Amino acid sequence: MNKIKTRLSASALAAAALLSGCATGPNRTPGDPLEPMNRTVFKFNDAVDQTIAVPIAKGYQAVTPTPVRTAVSSFFSNLGDLGNIANNLLQLRITDATQDMMRVVINSVFGVAGLFDVASLAGLPKHHQDFGLTLARWGVPAGPYLVLPIFGPSSFRDGVGRAVDVRFNLLNYIEPAARNPMYVAQFISARSDLLGATDLLQQAALDKYSFVRDAYVQQRRSLTYRGHGNDEPALPNYGEPDSEATPGAKRGSGEPGGLPQYQDPGDAGSGGSPSHSNSGKAAREPAGLPQYRDPGDDTAMKKGGGAAGHTAAPGAGKAASPASGAAAH
Q: For residues 301 and 318, what is the distance between their CA atoms, to the nearest angstrom?
């Protein structure tokens, strides 16, 4: 079975390479210069899927209880973590490789050979990796979009990666008598898990080929750049001028002018506030009101030469005249 899968991958790549010369043209979709050939292969794959794979997957789903299907899916997912470990090491993602290794150990021991995903319950994330992503990590371009017979959506880079990923599958190293039925069970389980996506595709997509192509390209890009578009993750912004200020922090003297300067009544008891030319007036006004500098005080200061008498509150002279008259009488 191992040799058959390897030969199928190689044959699919060879057929795509031979047909690519007559399928290219100047008006093809960018990123999909092999679209005519890809559409032909896609129709073939879709016919095989609808005729054979989907009925088998639906039958499996109908006769198998949900807990059993979940256990089977978890078992093969646990085997897949071995490939994740290898590719994370090749990508020098040591933390991810360590977490995936812990997942294999925990699920194999406490999850009864991987039938239960105990590691996810313990908070250990699963890192989906393959050799195509490893090649992308080291700068190998994806190349044109490519639909492989039987295997489905791919690219030139990911097609090469598939041939290597076969070597990371533990099933390849057991006896054929046990390996081949497990391959069949793995395929049926995986196809059963995708029945919901197939129903959505049948209902929502006007052009199934374009829908699958765009979804595949976006998914691979997201896995390659880990959800950050075409860039590496952005670094945190420390101390930049446009960064959000610390709550409660006061702006320095470089704050743009043009705004009235108000004094909080609660600051009256603090001794660090600067003195102003109208401090005498502020001291005589009732407490609890905000103190601000009237622009008219500057004019009065200029006319009076800075005398303290001109800083008194308006109406203070009128209040003194009756008092002096009363004293004279």
A: 20
Residue 6 and residue 166 in contact, taking contact as beta carbons nearer than 8 Å: yes
Strand 152-155 and strand 145-148: pairing?
A: antiparallel
Q: Return the residue matching tokens 């303290």.
A: 308
pTM assigned to the model: 0.60
Contact 151, 44 (CB under 8 A): no
Contact in structure between 112 and 156 (CB atoms under 8 Å)? no
Are 192 and 57 in contact, with CB atoms under 8 Å apart?
Answer: yes
- Measured CA distances, 29 to 12, 105, 210 (Å): 22, 46, 10
pLDDT digits (tens, 9 = 90+) for 222-263: 999 886 555 544 444 444 444 444 444 444 444 444 455 555
Question: What are the domain boundaries of the chain?
Answer: 2-19+32-223
* CA–CA distance, 128 with 87 (Å, rounded to integer): 9
Residue 36, CB half-sphere, CA atoms under 13 Å: how many? Answer: 10
Q: In this prediction, what percent of the chain has a pLDDT beyond 70?
A: 60
Question: Dihedral angle at the C-alpha atoms of 167, 169, 172, 175, nearest 10 degrees?
Answer: 150
> How far is residue 101's CA from residue 120's CA, in Å, rounded to a whole number?
13
What is the spatial distance between Cα 268 and Cα 291, in angstroms, rounded to a whole number?
A: 10
For 231, phi then psi, to 5°, come to -120, 160
Torsion angle in degrees (nearest 10) through CA of 50, 56, 61, 63: 150
Q: Find, among 48, 35, 21, 23, the residue nearest to 209 by Cα.
A: 35
